[in-house]
Every structure is written in C-alpha cells, then in structure tokens.
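Crash report, auto-generated. Payload:
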Amino acid sequence: MLQVGLTHFLVIGAILFSLGIYGIITRKNAVMVLMGVELILNAANINFVAFSRYGNFGLNGQIAALFVIVLAAAEAAIALAIVLNIYKTYSNVNVDEISNLKE
Amino acid sequence: MTESLLITLSIVTLFLPLLGFAVVVLTGKKFSKMYLFEMLIISATLLISLTIAFFKLSYYPHDIVASLDWFKFSNVPGIGTLNFEIGVKIDNLTALMLIVVNLISFLVHLFSIEYMHGDPRYNRYFSYLGIFTFSMLGIVLTHNLLMMYIFWELVGLSSYLLIGFWFEKKSASDASKKAFIVNRVGDIGMFAGILILFTNYHTFTFDKIFEQISMGHLPFNSPAWLTAAGILVFMGAVGKSAQFPLHVWLPDAMEGPTPVSALIHAATMVAAGVYLVVRIFAMLTADAMTVIAIIGAVTSFIAATIALTQNDIKKVLAYSTVSQLGYMIMALGVGAYSFAFFHLVTHAFFKACLFLGSGSVIHAMHHEQDIRNMGGLRKKLPITYYTFLISTLAISGIPFTSGFLSKDGILAGTLTFGKLTGYWFIPALGFLVALLTAFYMFRLVILTFHGEPRDHHKYDHAHESPFVMAAPLVILATLSIFIWYTPNPVGADQGWFLSKWVKTPHTVVPQNQRFNFMKTEEKTAAAETSEPALHEAEAPVHGEITHSEMYTEAMHASHYPAMFLSIAMAGLGILFAFLIYQWKKISADMLEEKLRPLHKFSLNKWYIDELYDATWIAGTLAFSKMLYWIDSVIIDGAVNGAATVTRFVSRLSGLFDTFVVDGFVNFTAFLSGFIGLNFKKLQTGKVQTYVIFVVFAIIIIMLVFKPY
Amino acid sequence: MAGFPILSLVTFLPVLGMIIIMFLKKEQALTIKYTTLLITGIQLVVAVVMLLNFNYNAQGVFQQSSFQFIEKFRWIQVPGVSWLGTVKIDYFLGVDGISMPMILLTAIVSFIATLSSWNIEKSIKGYFALFLLLDTGMMGVFVSLDFFLFYIFWELMLLPMYFLIGIWGGPRKEYAAIKFFIYTLFGSVFMLLVMIGLYFSAFETLADGTKVHTFNLLAMMDPSNFSANGILSPFNPSNLRFIAYIALFVGFAIKIPMFPFHTWLPDAHVEAPTPISVILAGVLLKMGTYGILRISYPIFPDITKQLMWWIALFGMINILYGAFVALAQKDFKKLIAYSSVSHMGYVLLGMASLTTAGISGAVFQMFNHGTITAMLFLIVGVIYDRAHTRGLDEFGGLAVQMPIYAGFVTVAFFAAIGLPSMSGFVSEALVFVGSFSVEGIRVLSILSSLGILLGAGYMLWTLQRVYLGKLNEKWANLKDLDVREYLMFVPLSIIVIFLGVYPSGMLNIMTTSVNTLVNLVNNGFAKVLF
Amino acid sequence: MDVSNIIESLKLIKPEIAVSASLILVLIFDLIFHKDKKLIPYVALLGLFATGYFVIHQFGTTGFGFATKSTFKAFGMVTVDSFGTFFKLLILISAVLVLFFSSFSDEIKKTTDRLGEYYVLIFGMILGMFLMVSATDFLLIYLSMELLSLSSYVLAGFTKLRDRNSEASLKYVIYGSVSSGLMLFGISIIYGLTGSTNLYVINSLIQSPQINVLALSFALILVMAGMGFKISAAPFHFWTPDVYEGSPITITAFLSVASKAAGFGLLIRFIKTGFAAMTLNNGYWMLNPIFDWKLIIVILAILTMTLGNFSALWQNNLKRMLAYSSIAHAGYLLLGLAVFSNQGIAAILIYFFVYMLMNLGAFLIVMLIADKLGSEDVDDYDGLGYTSPFLGISLAVFLVSLTGLPPTAGFIGKLYIFSALIDAKMFVVAVIGVLNSVVSLYYYIRVLKHMYLVKPKIQPVEIIPGLSQKFLVLLLVVPVLFFGIYFSPIVELAKNCVVLLGF
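Recovered output after restart:
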C-alpha cells in the first residue's frame, strides 16, 4: 500500500522548482516568466509545509509558508506593474527584445 | 733648493698649464691676444721644469716623493683604511721627462704661432695645448697608478680635442673619435690591471706595490695573476703608444694640426705608453716581458712595412712613429730598459723635428701633403731641409746621431735576448726594421726635397718659414746630435745619460718568474739579506743590479756585432732608397708592378682598418640594432605584436575605441583586454541568459565542490 | 638645530608652495613661476643647511640613535584587543649618510628643473602645483624611516608624474604616462604585500614594555624583533623570505629600471617635457636603488648575500644592454634614456659587491648620474626647444653655431663617458674597485667594463653627429644659450667637476653609514657593534 | 513569547521603528500637501536624523529581539549588536547623502509630482536593510530582503524618463525574484534538515552527524545565490551593470553602497552565526567543517573582482563602468570575508566605510556632470578637467581612492584587506588581489585621461556647481583625504564593531 510520505511532497516540490526554472528560461512573455517565479516560490512552500508536517518541527514552517504566500502576492503586484510599464514603452512584453542595456 | 721646494715647484709646473687652459678657454672669445698668455705660461713652465730637472739630476740621487689622500674610506670592514692617494714622485726619469715634454711643448707652441695663424679658433687651439701639457705633466709626475690612469684619460681628452680641432672636416671628427675609442680599449685593460693590483695591495702607489711584491705577496697568491696584471697594465701602453693591434688610430690622428702631431702623436703622449711600461718594469714577469717584446717587434715590423708605400708625408712619419714606439716596447720586453728610455728621449727630439719639418713643408706648400706632388724643395727650404736631414739620419741610426746610440743599444739588447733565450726572431725583426726605416725615411727625404719639383705651381709659391717656425727646427735638430748624451759617439754606456741618470730598476718579481738572465745571483742575494742597511745607503732603489753577470757579459759581447750590423742595415736601406728614388737605377714602378700584391697589402695598411670595420664595428652596430629590435618588439610588448592583433580584431568587430591602441601595449594588456572582452560578451542584455548563467553557476559550484 | 623639524620643512615646503599656487590666479603666470623657484630655492638652502650641520661620524642605517635630524612621533595609534594588536604607526623621519646625498640631489635637481620649466606654456598653474607635489613625494621617500610612510611617499609621486607626462608631454604622451603608471604600480603593489608581511613579522618594544607590530624600518633590521613563527622571520625556515625579497626587489627594480623592466623608461623620457625628464632621470630612478639599500639590504641581509651574484648579473646586463641599445638609437632623447639604463647598471653592480668601495661608488654614482643625466636631458631640451626635432641625423656642426652650448655639451658628455676629473669617473671607478674585489662577481665586473668602451662609443658618436662636422644650413639661425639656460648648466657643471676633483666632499658624507651597512649585510644577523 | 518579551524587543528595534514612522509620516505628508512637494525632502531628512539618533544610541547595546522558542536560549529573530549597528549607521549615512543627491538630481526633479512615493520607497529600502543586517532568522532574512528588493525594483524604474529605466526595472524584478526564489527553496531545505529557521539554533543542530551533506550543500549554495545577488558577487552579478546603468543615478548610488552593505552584513552574520563554532583568541573563527566556506568564498571573491575589473576595462558609460567597479569592490570585500577572522571583518568594515565615501562621491560627480552634459559617456568628458576644475579634481580624488592609492582613504581599505590576507597566510590570493587593483587603475585613470589628457574635439562645457553642491562634494572629498592620512578613527570604530553577539 502506497503511503504518501515526506518524499512524495519533496519530489513534487522539486518538480515544481524545476518547472519554474524551465519556465523562466524558456518563456518569452514576461508574465509567463513571472509565473515561473511563482512556481519556485510554491515549490518552497510545499517543502516548508511538508517538513513542518512530517518533521515534528512545530508550526514554524507553515507560518513561513503563509508569509511567503503574502510576499509572493506583493511581488506579483509590483512585477505586473512593471510589466505594464514595459508594455507602455515597448508595446510588447517580450523579455528577449528588451535588451538594450548590455555589455 | 730643499726637497719640499722642488715638490712645490713641480706642483706649480703641473698646474700652470691648467691655469693657462682655464683662462684662455674662458676669455679667448673676447680677447684675441689671449694666446700670448698661454705662451707666457708655457715659458714659465719650461723654466721651472728645467730648474727642477737641474737640481734633481745634480743634487738629489734619491727619489723625492710627496703624497696626500685624495679621498679615503676609514674603518672599512675587513680592510681598515682604504686610501686613494695622489702624489708626486720626482726621480731621474721624471726630471728627464719634464725637460723633454716641456721643451718640445714650448717649441711646438712657438711653431704654432705662425703655423696656426689666421685660424678662427686660434686661442682655443692654444688653450688645448695647455690642457695637454697639464695632462702630460701629470703622467710624468705621478707616483701612482690611479693618477696615471686619470691623466692617461685626460691626455686622451686633449688628444681628442686636438685631433678633432678642425671638426668641420668629417675625417677629423672621425679620427678623433677613433683615437679616443681605440685608446679606451687599451684603457680598459689597464684599468683591469690596476684593479688586480689594488684589490690585493689596497694601494695604487708604484713603490708600495713593488714593496709588497718583493716581500712575496703575489696577487691572489699566484704568479699567473702577476703576469696578468703586468700584461693588462701594458694594454694601456698598447693603446696609447699605438702598438699592434691598437695602432690603427695613430695614422688617422694626423688629421690634427701638424704641430699637434709633433707634440702629441710623435714626441710625448704616444711615448707615455713606453713611460708606463718603464714605470711598471720592476713587476714584469718573464712571461709578461716576452709578450711585450713580441708585440713591440711585431708592431715595429708592421708599421715599417706600411710606411714603405705611403705617399702622405705625415702618414709616413706616423707609421715611422709607430714603428719606433714598437722598438722601445720591444726593448723593454727584452730587458734593455735603459736603452728603451734613452730611445724615448732621442726619438722625441728627432721625431718632433721631423714632424715640425713636415709642418714647415706643408705650410710652405699651402697644405699639400702628398709627397708625389713635392720634390726639389731643398733649394726653397734650406733650413727645413737640413734639419730634416739630420733627424732622418738620426732615425736611420747613422753614427754621430743620438738615434744611432739608442737604436744600437736596443738592437744589441735584442741580440743578447735572442742569444740568451733563443727567441731569434726578435733581433731578426729588429734588424730588418732598421733596414726598412732607413729606406722609407730616405725615400721620404728624396721625394720631398731632392729631384725636380713635380708641382711647379705650388713649388713656385713655396718659401722658407719665418723665424718662429725655423728656430724650433734648429733646436730640435741640434738635440739629435750625440754630444748631448755622451762624449763617445759609438757607445752610450759611459755617457752621463746612461751611467748617471737612467739605471735599470731592481726587479721585484719572484726569482722563479724571471728570465734566467735576470735572476739575482746568490752572491748578490746574500748581500741583500745580510746587509740591507748598507745596501740601501750605497745604492738606493735604482742602483741595484737587475741583470745577472751572464747578461752583462752577453750584452758586452753583442755590442759591436750589433753596431756593425745596424750600420750595415741602415746603409743598405739608404742605398736602396737612393738607387730607386734618387738615381732611378731601379724603377719604382717596375718594383711596384712586380710586387703588386705586397705593395697593395702595404699601401692598404695590411687591411687592418677594413678588418676592424667589418668585424668589431659592424658587429657591434649590428648587435646593438638587434638588441634594440628585441627591446622594442619582444621585451616591450611581448605584445606590440599581440596589440596589433587586438587592434585588428577591434577594427574588425568595430567594438573598441582607441582604447586598445593606446592601452597597455604589453602582454598583460593583451591578456586583460582579451579576458575583459570575453567577460563582456557574457553580458548579453537578456535577462533569461543571466538566469541560465546563474543556474549553471550553481550546478558548476556543486560539481567543483563535491560535497558528497 | 635640535628639535627643529628641518626634515618636515624640507619635505613639506613644496606642499606649502602648492597651496600658495592654488590660491593664485591662472593669469599670474610669472608669480607662479617665481613662487616655485623661491620654494625650491629655499628647499635647496635648507638642504645645504642640513649638510652643514651633518655629523659625518654618525652611523645611521639601523641605529636610531645615530640618525640625524630625527623626527618621530605617534601618527596612528589604535589600542589593541586580543585578536588585533595595537596599531601603531610613527611619523618617523631621519637622515644618515646614505640619504643625505639623495636629499641634496633632490633639492638641486628640483631647483634646476624649475628653471628649465620656465617656458612651459600650457596651464602653468596646474603644472607647477603638480611639480611641487612631486617634489614632496621624492623628498619624502628619502627621509622616511617608517615603511608605511615610505610607501605613501613612494605612491604619492605617481599621480603627479602621470599628469606631468600625460598633459605636458609629447605626441605619445598618454601611452607613455599610463605605461609609467602601470609599471610602477605593478611593482609597488608587491612592495605593499611585503610591507604587510614584514609588519606582521616584526615587533617593536614600546616605552612601556609592550610589544607591538611595527612598520619601523629600523626595528625590522634587528632579528631580535622577529618572532620565531612570523611569516617573514629570519628564524622561519620557509622560503617565503626569499620570495618576499624578490617581490620587494622587483618593486624597486622597476623604478631603477632594471632589465627587463626598463621598457617604460625610454617611452616616458621621450614623451615627458624636458624638466620632467630631468626629474625622472635625476631623482626618480634613484629611488629604486635607494630603496634597495635602505630596505632590502638591511632587512634581508641573508637573502642579499645569497642573491648578490644575480644582482651583479643584472647590473652587468643593464650596463651592456643599455649601452648597446643606446648605440642603435636615432632619437637623441631615447639615446640618453638608454644611457641611463646603462649608468644605473653601475649602481647595481656596485651595490652587489657588498663592499665599502662598491656601495659608496653606487651611492656616489646615484648622485652623479642625477646631475650628469640632468645635464644631458637639459642639453636635449635646449635643441628641442629651438629646432623641434631630436633626430640625431638631422643636425651637425652645432658646435660652430652655438659654441657656449657646445662647451657644456662637451663637459656633460665627457662626464657621462666617465672621464677622470669629472664626478662620474670616481663613482664608476669605485664601483669597479668594489665589484672586482669580490671573487664571486669578478668576472661580471670585468665584462661590465666593456660598458665604459661602449659608453664612449655612443656618446662620442652622438657628439660627432650633432655637434661636429659641417653646420647643417637648416639650423644656421639657432641662438646660443640665454641667461636662464646658462644658469641651469653652470651649477651642474661646477658640481660635476668639483666632485670629480674633490670626491671627498660627497664620499665623506656616506662612508660611515656605508661601512655600517656593509658590516650589517656581511655579518648577516649577527649584531653589529663597533 | 510573552508581552514583556515583545516590549523588551521593541526597545531593541527603535531605529527600525523610527524608520517605519518616518515612512508613514512621509506618506501622510505626501497625501496632505500633494500640491507642494517641497517639504517632503525635509520631512524625510528629519526622519533620517531621528533614526540616526537612535542608531547612534544603539551602539554598545546588545540583545535578542522577538525570541521564538523558550526551549533554547532566548535566541530571537532580531539580534542587535555593534556589528549590525555599524552597518545601520553606514546605511543611514548613505541614505542621507543620497537624499541630498536627490535634491540636486535633474532626473528626480523631473518627476517631482511623485516625490512622495520616491521617499517612501527609499524608506522602505532602509527598513529592509536595517532588518537584514540584524536578522538571525531565515524568515526575517527572507522578508527583509524582499522588502528591500521590492522597493528597489520600483525605484530602479522610477523616473520612466527613458526606455532604459523600465528595462532596468524589469530585469531587476525578474532576476531578483528568481534569486529570492532560489534562496527560499534553499531555506526550505535547510529547514527540513534542521527543523529550525533560527540561525543560532541551526548552528547548534548542524553539528549532528546525520545531516545530509549533499542536501545541505545544495541548500547553502542556493542561499548563497540569493545573497550573492544582493552583493552582486559573480556569477550572480549579471543584473548589476544593466540595472545600475538603467536606474536613476541616485538609486544606482544607493544600491551600490547601502544595498551592498546590507547584503554583506547579512552574509557575514549568516555565516558566522550559522556556522562558526567559536572565535579563537587570535581572532580566527572555527567554522563548522560540514561546509567548506573558505573555498567557495575565495573562489567567488577572485571571480568577482577579476570579472568586475576586466569587464570595466571596456566600458564607455561611466555609470556602467562604476557598476563593474562596484562588482570588483565586492570582490575585494569578499576577500576580507574569506579569511574568516575578526581581522577580516574589521577590514571589511573599514573598507565599507571608505567605499561609501568614495563611491558615493564618484556617483555624485558623475551625476552633476550628467545633469549638465546629458551624457555619462567618457568620450564626452574630454577636456572637462580644465573647464570644471573643481569637479575634475574631486573626481580625480575619488577615482584615485577607488584605485587604492595613498594618500587617500581607499588605500587604507585595501591595506587592511590585504593585511588580513597576509596575516592569514593567504599569499596567492593576496597577489591576485593586488594584481587586480593594478588592472583597476587602468579604467579609473582612463577617466582622468579623458578629462585632462585628451584634446577635446569641441569646446567642453563649463560646469560650475552651486555652493551647496560644492559643499556636498567637499563633504565627501575631505574625509577621503583625511582618512587617508589619519585613519585611527575608522580603525577604532571598526575594531569595536566586529564582535557579533554570541561569539
């Protein structure tokens, strides 16, 4: 009988993390890139909660997860505002093309 | 006349010419008559010198020495006090040299008044003569090697200035440069020799060095080093006295005014080399003496053969000077010390006379120096002719002249040397040179003064020189007669010059390093050790016997053979000269034709200059160019090259500004540029690329780190 | 004199001048010039006053009590904690027989260089301000007895030099300036590391008996001040000391400049304006050799003895290499620059001998090279000012056109050749006397003597090409020296000849100190007591 | 956690409270006086001075704030000690200076209508930084870093005057959030391995042998990535040049000094609190051998300074050049950390103090020139040294100081860094360090070359700074020179601020 344990959560966290990285690297759309970031944050959240639940470490991890969720929201808000601004200037949100500052 | 007064006078006589130089050189531009001041000075110097010489030779049998510390290092670790002394030593040699130098200098000054008349740098010329006299007197008066070296270089300077006096001519400035540099080659050797002695004895003073050697203290405890020191110091003489292989500068030095040639390049400065060897004679080992004898003999032979074919009146005389200096050096090498010095003195007078005579001719012929354009001048320039003739007889070694006495002595010395050591080629060369000398000197006389004039235009304008030029000639010619040196016209041994004034010094070289014939016999040696006090009282320093009895006997035995042989040689030479040039019994052209290769070889001075040009000079310049190339290309910019590449790349990609060009142009520059360039490329401006880099960085760090 | 801070005066006087100049207006060009002249003049007078009060028998070198005109007070002090010892740096100035000649040299050359700066036209104010700052830097190096202070002065003159070459220099000035800067900085950063290493290795015992780390050079010379496990302690068997010596030496060698670090010199000289070339050759190069004598030798006597052959070898290479390359030059100034390389080789050779004669010769040569080369650069400057070219082959016969000038040229050239009766001879002779007497480097010494010959070669050739021969008609209107130029040459000529005739004037100053140094180095770390 | 603990803790965070209060005050002022923004800078300044008062008072105070667990000793989320206070002071001084900069800056003047937001965000940054340097709990570390980041993301693109402002902002936010994400993931793993987020607790737990070293290393490297981002250590520095160039110059200056200082404060505290077993009597730390910090820091340091210096060689834009230069300086600072000793930390503190003066000075001059010239391109600086001697000489002093030549303060910073290295016998690293500083000379001096040596193609503009601007420049020049000659005060201060609470 398959017991869902810590490892499973961690594997899911790792997969999310990897997907996040993959998204950040490959997506051209800035909003999609930001979604990749959200995936990473949530991967960490899953870890926190899982450790907290299975490790008998008290509630610290879960509280941390709550904070992260809040912060993720704030970050998303700011990031989207910036993307909006970019759209105003460049009329697109393709991160590849926004590369005047270099070398 | 106390000793201290003599010393004072000698110092005065030393510095007077310097004063003359300083005053004339500084004021000569403003006052056109400043040369008279120099004349005054040289007259005073001459008078004082004569006084000193008179008193020294008459009243003081021993040496008069005074010295002081020029500078010193006290409390030197391991040594104590290190003195750099300067000082004056007046012995008989000094006294005689004082007369020779100052007399000839005075006469040359006199001669120059007319000869140099009208030169734009007239006063400058006299000031240079002043500094020369000063330097030469320094060499004469010094009692140590350091000061000798200092004045050695200073005569070099005055020689440089005077040879290049007409520096507008390229040949003159070339010659002066050559003279200085060639002399420097010898000087380096001399300096090295001095260093060997100083390192071991911590003194430069001749007497102190000799004293230490005589006590058995050899340089670096090895007789080989003593030989080396002797030969190295002798190197200085090789340069200054124009011995082979450094003789090449002297003929070129004839670019200077003729009176200068008479004074510096015939009578005095070039004889300084001989004087130096005379000074260090006491410390020469047998090996060193052999080297010296060989160099002297070879030089005299080479120079004599070259003189045979030269057409420039001064060149002939120059080579004859080289040849005669070779004689003196050879004489020292074979141990005929006193004759060498004797020849120095006699040669100084008759050679000065010859040069001034040639000056008179050149002056009369309006600076024509080629003897092929002369002839028949006997009638136009009688005084010049007769004085010239007397001197020529002297140099050829005809009896009743001073030259005969000294030359005869030298030849006897070589003969004895050959007999005692088996080096027969040295006397052979000596006699051969005697023949050649007589030949080329008479060739010169005949072509210049006898026969018909070959350039009538110049001949017609020629006229005898005025008094100030003639008087020196007469005086010098008179001094070429035997009577000044000895009452006996065929043997100088009993004359005051050799019996009283010049005696061979006691050699200080260890017994086993001497020639057999110079070894102190046991009898004498015993006397030396048992009765040193008595010995000293009787015969201080110069009175000692250097040569063994064996030598004295052999010398005695070879006196007459040598005399007859030398007269025969001279006569033969003169005969040939007359046969060929006067009576034209043998055609000179025919001889030239038959002996073409030899003639060319002689005319071109054995191609020695060409050889040096092609090897040393060209080599040095090529080497220096190569080093400079290396310096600017390889050392400076392992990467001037790399920078070029960078620049090329920069143009190509259009990425850089002039930054690279004036950037670090060396390897680090290139490297940093290169690194920077690649780092720069990482900065693509695309944020996703950055993220990729970060991810990769993390992976790489994990791998490098190997925490597992 | 006791108590009067004469060394601070001589060092910081130029800074005072600089401040005065800062407050002057750009337009007051003449005032600025005269201010500078006055300041350097006073500096010279102060230096002479020091000389007059100088005690010839005081040893100096490693003994604080026998240094003269000492100024020492606490500059930086931070009380220590367990992991950080008391930080203590002294403002420590003093003079002994080795630094005194250098101080004189600096004062003389600065004064002459001021005279020669008279026809600078571009931003005069900046020029003279930087010039004076440079002066302070140079003087400071020669009077510091604290490594930290020494280093600060050492670096202080980099920037003024950069600008002086870079702004007032020739066509490739930017390149030359940066090359000079980078090279020197490259050397000095290593010096910095060694300095720190020594700091952590050496102690000084304070008055209250506590031991603190120190930058005091004199304390570093006493082995009893080193702890056994200090990184650069002589008791530490690691070879770090050896490496440190090399690093320090490279720092100094670049300044000398020693082959193969010399390539900045020709560029810097050629591009720098005349007065700066004069300073550069006259004083700056000496800082390298001075540093070796003041720091490397007494602090690392053991390594010095080990490496003496190598130092002599590089001395020889410098002499011969510089001379050969000089022979190949077509640019007058470059030729003089390479001749400097050659002449500084004698200094190295003399130092390597570790004998009194050799080191005295080296120090004396430092002084003489300073005055002689200053003259040579002034000579180049004179024709460059008039003809605006320095090509050796473009001239000829100037001796006819400019006889007075030619007279000074003769003096300077023959002094450079090492003609007796000129100061250069005495120092070169002493160098050879010293180096020849040491068996290990005798061969090198003999080979080096070839440099005398080559020196005569390139100098006389130059003399011939530029001054002798027929006058090139192009230059028939060049004027002879004016009064100001006359004033630059006369004192230098007098010094050169005076010291050639009476070398004791300079040698006596240094003998006691040099003896002490020789003892110190030769005895390794055995305590030296006379 | 009881009330008294909270009250005690509040006493410890007075400066932070003051910052927060100022933030709110500025916000309120902005709302009330939205027509006239002139007052806002003064209010902000007042707030900073008030904060300064508390910061200075905090020197010597130590304590843990907001302890979370009673089973262990009362370790808190916030640790107050002199080390942190030093950094707070540093941050505060640079904030004050940046405030002045802002009042001169043309860029900021053009956006006066949003001035309130600007100051509010700056206060946000300050608060984040204050918390960063005293945080000893991963949670607070993360939160404070985010607070700093979020404020700076906005500020980077604040002026919106040019395209590059927005671009900088976007890059910053993407790069920054990825970094913080990575770090957070790392933190979550550490939490899983040790069961705690408190550094002190982690320190004591981490010694147990059953810790999975691979996982821990991975987590720590991720955390390093986050912190490396803040201090722009290679290879996490890529955002720096782009963002520095794109941001308003005042913000660039602030980021390059304060943000970096906070990052370093955090990094040092993190390593020492988390991994040092004890500090030996001679000042060296005994680090827990579980992770080879020395190797990684040395590698990062060398990489950072080399990359920074060599890239800077090629820059024509002065801002960008200074960005790379600040990367290089981060490398030197990491060298100070790499010795893991109190000496090294003291060197870092000294260096930072000096770096603040000279770097802000350089940015100030660049700003003043850019305002007039409209360009930060080095080619446009040709001949400027003659027409604007005051600015020219001042910039020369700052650049020379940045190179590290005496007699400027920059030399003292370098001296102490290299002293620490030599003392720790890290000779090779020291040699690489000094060689790097030789390279750095090249690009700094290049600016001077353009100002003084290069002949201008067109007549250069004359820039005469106002009296207050001159005063501000002097305020930075004089200490740079003064501390170069007399540096006892900084050393004294640094020496007293090295010790972290608990060791």
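Post-recovery validation: Chain A has one domain: 6-90.
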